[in-house]
Write a structure and sequence with these properties.
By secondary structure, this protein is of the alpha/beta class. β9, α5 and β10 form a beta-alpha-beta unit. It is 30% helix and 16% strand. It has 17 helices and 16 strands.
């Protein structure tokens, strides 16, 4: 019945989801990379068993793996050697080393709900010269595609990967194909696989395959991703802490269903101030705020907040103090007549203020976190999430994956769905269950009791989280609030096992006026295996000469600008010297 009702909406819903999925995953699907960037270790961190380093190993066989018994319901569809230099990764100067590529699937089944065939697809890349470590690469968006298993190490564009470092890496589609987006949400088990179960199934399979390939299991296991991949990482920290020694979570959408609802709220707000319609006769959200108008707001933020860290350098390092200093109503000029890019109308200020304060229902109850005003709100990535993905990707996700029962089966897609979505009566559907959908999206998507990571803490595992403060879809304020709760649950200090690194100016997993390129996997390994907790991570911009240039770096920045990323609540404070060097700043 559900499939029949949906059939008339299939082409438009699927097309809308596909149109924005690439943009959603491109910025943060598997996490970026940073290369050999330094980090600043602090005194050794204790907790759990004494740190021990992974031992290197050598691949014993590749094609022979196909003849060995597979784990559980696993089926290998391809096993092949990949010579050194064959695989290249955009942004990484050095081709990937020689490795074994194993592709396959687990748990193939036919759904009794929609009649479709589902399976957990995956690929593993097993380097010949192995560093003794396993890396689970969590992908982004609505998943649905097996991204190349190379392993992101941080923000921005990669200059190295976990595979280049010698990790055995796995990637998966989380239990559904790209062609099944977003209708996989009609199948209850596909929902659970997407939320957490694919990781539960793939982790022991991957470790078993590693043991077959190298003659022993991995000494250390790591988990990393950005965006929805960051959510996967936060879920792993809560659900699978006994399986992973180090977890890297970037721009984590750990409250993803709430954030998606907030995006629909944003559509409704922006529609109030659009000045034109699309060719289809719908409100053109791009006209709600022009690039010039958002630049005016961003410049006003910098005027109030740039110097709060002691340096006027185009970076708002002290986000918390900026909240007290910046006033949208007073600091941005109000248009006396027509809009010209240098001012906002009174209604525009009301709309933008509502969105940055956080989505609410008509009773004033908060539906998601607010967002900090920051310099990166004038960029292309911010606009992509606010004015495009919000009416495509987020409507598909809420319509079929996050609502119980799925609201998208009986409603039109895209902006019509967003405009017709009730913050009073529809928003609670992300908490709802039915006889068929026995777990709500809040249950299967979010980490259970995220402020209680006692298992991860007590076994000596480590968690590093980073989040761009100009992220348009997942609020860095939400992550800050989570970390404050984690601190409170650990006597006021969780830094012995978990550290949070805000990235000023960075958009969703990369981009923006920011030093957005960094390697957090290397310091995570040093923390786990040597007990060296990171006091800071040095990040750089992607200016002229970078493998992938960040076109939104301000023209007056040095192409080689560096900054320390500081563990919250510390900020990078200017101490004197060149504004282009991390050495001129200290975390305090």
């Amino acid at each position: 019945m559900v499939e029949t009702v949906f059939s008339s909406f299939r082409p438009s819903w699927a097309a809308l989801a596909a149109a924005s999925l690439m943009a959603a995953c491109g910025g943060g699907g598997g996490g970026g990379g940073g290369g050999a960037f330094p980090f600043i270790p602090s005194t050794p961190s204790t907790g759990g068993s004494p740190p021990t380093e992974a031992r290197p190993g050598t691949l014993q066989s590749c094609t022979d793996l196909a003849s060995k018994a597979a784990f559980g319901s696993t089926v290998y569809t391809s096993v092949a050697s990949v010579p050194a230099g064959t695989l290249t990764v955009a942004g990484v100067a050095t081709p990937a080393p020689e490795h074994c590529l194993v592709q396959g699937q687990m748990n193939q089944r036919t759904s009794s709900v929609d009649g479709k065939t589902y399976a957990i697809g995956f690929e593993m890349r097993l380097p010949v010269n192995w560093n003794g470590r396993f890396f689970y690469q969590a992908n982004g968006g609505l998943d649905g595609n097996v991204a190349r298993a190379t392993g992101g190490v941080g923000g921005g564009a990669p200059t190295t990967t976990a595979l280049h470092m010698g990790f055995a890496v796995i990637s998966s589609d989380a239990g559904h194909s790209g062609a099944q987006i977003p209708t996989f949400g009609l199948d209850p088990q596909a929902r659970l696989d997407y939320g957490y179960n694919a990781v539960a199934q793939l982790t022991p399979m991957a470790k078993n395959l590693i043991a077959k390939a190298y003659g022993r299991a991995p000494d250390r296991s790591y988990f990393g991703g950005c965006s929805n991949g960051g959510r996967h990482a936060m879920v792993a920290a809560a659900r699978f802490a006994n399986q992973y020694d180090g977890i890297l979570a970037g721009n984590p959408g750990f409250n993803l269903p709430k954030a998606a609802v907030a995006q629909l709220y944003g559509v409704q707000q922006y529609a109030r101030v659009t000045t034109a319609n699309t060719p289809a006769g719908k409100p053109d959200l791009q006209t709600a705020f022009t690039p010039a108008e958002m630049s005016t707001v961003a410049n006003a933020v910098l005027a109030r907040c740039d110097a709060l860290d002691g340096a006027t350098d185009g970076i708002v390092a002290d986000v918390q103090m900026c909240k007290q200093a910046f006033d949208l109503a007073a600091d941005v000029p109000t248009c006396a007549a027509t809009r010209n890019g240098s001012c906002l109308t009174t209604t525009q200020k009301e709309v933008l203020g509502n969105i940055f304060a956080g989505a609410r229902n008509t009773a004033g109850a908060a539906l998601y976190s607010g967002f900090p005003f920051d310099a990166g709100i004038k960029g292309a990535d911010w606009r992509q999430w606010e004015f495009s993905n919000s009416q495509n990707l987020d409507t598909a996700a809420v319509g079929f994956v996050f609502s119980s029962p799925p609201l998208g089966t009986s409603r039109p897609p895209g902006i019509d769905f967003a405009l017709g979505f009730s913050m009073d009566t529809d928003a609670p559907s992300i908490f709802a269950t039915t006889a068929l959908y026995t777990e709500s999206s809040i249950s299967f998507m979010t980490p259970p009791n995220p402020a209680n990571l006692s298992v991860l803490r007590d076994r000596g595992s480590k968690l590093m989280v980073y989040h761009g403060t100009s992220d348009a879809v997942f609020s860095s304020d939400d992550t800050t609030r989570w970390y404050e709760q984690l601190r409170a649950a650990n006597g006021g200090d969780a830094s012995g096992f978990a550290r949070f690194f805000p990235v000023p100016g960075m958009n969703h997993c990369g981009g923006g006026p920011s030093t957005d390129q960094f390697d957090m996997l290397t310091p995570l390994v040093a923390w786990v295996e040597q007990g060296k907790a990171p006091a800071a991570v040095v990040a750089t911009g992607r200016g002229a000469g970078a493998n992938v240039v960040n076109a939104e770096l301000p023209a007056n920045w040095s192409p080689a600008r560096t900054r320390p990323l500081c563990p919250y609540p510390k900020i990078a404070a200017y101490m004197g010297g060149s504004l282009e060097s991390a050495a001129s700043f200290v975390c305090r």
